[in-house]
Amino acid sequence: MPMINLDTHVLVHALQDEVRPRERTLLRDNSWGISAIVLWELAKLIQLGRISLDLTEPAVETVLSGMQVWPLDLDVARASTRLDFRGDPADELIAATSIVHRVPLLTRDKRIRRSKLVPLA
User: Which one of 15, 18, 33, 102 is separated from 59 by 20 to 30 angstroms, measured CA to CA?
Assistant: First the structure.
């Protein structure tokens, strides 16, 4: 099964079953992967009260433990400095992960979607 890289917000929407029809199709037809920074972002968003999600809930743990998690390594760090857009550091690392691992990124972020470098789902 092909793989897609999910940005943090798409993953949150997927975990809460609040995805758009096109996203639902892509999520159904592909294996899911995330950059390691997404796990940190999830925890911080919960801590700050910006999302309501329980990382200890069995269904959430099952989804997260079954996903490919790409590390933040030197290749990703380098690629994040050569992007054709500027965003917050986590978004840049997520996009760079897609470039390095040649995996399409599923995102709603308009800046990233305008990139000519990031492979998009």
Answer: 102
Task: Report the alpha-carbon distance of residue 82 to residue 51 in Å, rounded.
Answer: 31
For residue 93, is it within any domain? yes
* 24-77 confidence digits (pLDDT tens): 999 999 999 999 999 999 999 999 999 999 999 999 999 999 999 999 999 999
Q: CA 121 to CA 20: how far, in whole Å?
A: 13
What is the reported pLDDT for 59? 93
What is the tally of structural domains in the chain? 1
The answer to the question of residue 70 being in a domain is yes
- If DSSP states are collapsed to H, E and C, what string results for 26-88? HHHHCEEEEEHHHHHHHHHHHHCCCCCCCCCCHHHHHHHHCCEEECCCHHHHHHHCCCCCCCC
| Residue 121 within a domain | no
pTM (two decimals): 0.94
